[in-house]
Specification:
This protein is α+β, with helices and mostly antiparallel strands. About 25% of the residues lie in helices and about 15% in strands. The structure holds tetrahydrodeoxyuridine.
């Protein structure tokens, strides 16, 4: 360690090599969309039209699959008091948790001007939504975006927990 200023070095015992075990799956890998994930994306796109995005004009839809097999939907709902708005992903989580679900197997997110063609710009979930998803879903949880299947642990390493 070489701090700026007059002190040129300080003794330390920090490890210089990462000794953590590697996870079984590469959480940063982006998997190609398969038929099932495409179908879930279509559901997210369909519900996106119901978004209340009066202020940003950016509509988002989310389709969250519970372990029960039930799919819960969410859209972004904005508000004149901007911070009171909620994202589509958290709206879907609210619907699912309120229905008594506690385990989830995947979420698909469609946002903005994504059209029906391939290779669109993905609508990546915001940091707060990543943290909220991490409350209920493991690092291997698939987050299905327009350009592929991401894993939650890759999107949010070192999530906060109590
Ligand atoms: N938004 C979502 O609903 N989900 C995201 O993943 C990113 C952003 C919403 C919040 C706001 O209503 C609008 O998109 C523009 O930021």
């Amino acid at each position: 360690i070489r701090p700026m200023g007059t002190i040129r070095s300080v003794p330390h015992s920090f490890k210089t090599r990462n000794t953590h075990k590697k996870p079984a799956v590469d959480l940063h890998e982006i998997l190609p969309l398969d038929d099932e994930s495409r179908a879930l994306l279509e559901i997210a796109k369909a519900v996106r039209d119901k978004a209340y995005a009066k202020y940003s004009g950016f509509q988002v839809g989310a389709a969250l699959v519970a372990a029960s097999g039930q799919v819960y939907l969410g859209v972004n709902i904005e508000n004149a008091s901007y911070p009171a708005g909620i994202c589509a992903e958290r709206a879907a989580i609210c619907a699912a948790i309120s229905a008594g679900e506690t385990e989830f197997t995947a979420i698909a997110i469609a946002g903005g001007d994504e059209d029906d063609t391939e290779a669109q710009t993905p609508c990546c979930p915001c940091g707060i939504c990543r943290q909220v998803l991490s409350e209920f879903c493991p690092p291997e949880f698939p987050v299905i975006l327009a350009d592929g299947v991401y894993l939650l642990g890759g999107l949010l390493p070192h999530a906060f927990s109590l």
